[in-house]
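REVIEWER CHECKLIST
Item 1: Sequence provided? yes
Item 2: Single chain? yes
Item 3: Sequence as submitted:
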Amino acid sequence: MRLKLLLLGAVLCLSLSLCLSLCLSLVLALVPQATMAQEEGSNDAPIWGIKVVNQYPHDINFFTQGLFYHDGHLYEGTGKRGLSALSKRSLTANDVILSSKLSNRYFGEGIVLVDDKIYQLTWQSHMVFVYSRDSFEQLTTHYNATEGWGLAYDGSQLILSDGSATLQFVDPETFIPQRKITVTLNGNSVPNLNELEYIDGEIWANVWQTDFILRIDPATGETNSYIDLSGLSGLTELGSNEAVLNGIAWDEEQDRLFVTGKHWAHLFEIELVAP
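Item 4: Structure as written out by the authors:
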């Protein structure tokens, strides 16, 4: 009987020790989350709202990865293996004017216009395709050492996102990285940077699987402000469970801003509402 009591006591002590250890682990795990929540709650970066000005038809089958506006037309790069393509379309009617499909082995990503050439990333194949803007004839290719997500151009260098918090600045002739920045919001790094656009000296970035667009200082990586597009997806039909906000296009001549999403049935022209 004494032996049984000793064994029972040992089991209870061990169980108590394990419970205390588990509780301590949970407390330690929750502390960083609480700290981050407090930092986000004391947000220093201004938050812009939006006003929808116009809406245009958008192919709900397009898994939008890259977007830009040029000379009255919308250019779009789409993803998914076997469906990836580059297209030029009319804004109002969504008619396809020009299209080039990628090989089934490639998952298309971000696109950008550099003078009379269009650059298109691929996700994990490390290939960058360069096309003639006017004919979509493939002119050359480059090697990209990272994953390809979003692409923008600041007038001298390409800006590339790879799904992390890092943005690389790349020579468009050689595709050799020149420098990089870490994007932060109120001191915290922001991963999942996706589609990019360069607007009036700032890098604008979709954050994957969120309703936010960051406005980033290209010199420091700090987020100057960000845009809350919550509710916009509720104004259109969504074609899949992957139908998240992604796609920013800027009409520099008329100061028009367009946004859309993967598998969205509409593209929206929006104006910002001051914080």
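Item 5: Key structural point noted by reviewer: Residues 2-41 form the longest helix (40 residues).
Item 6: Recommendation: ____
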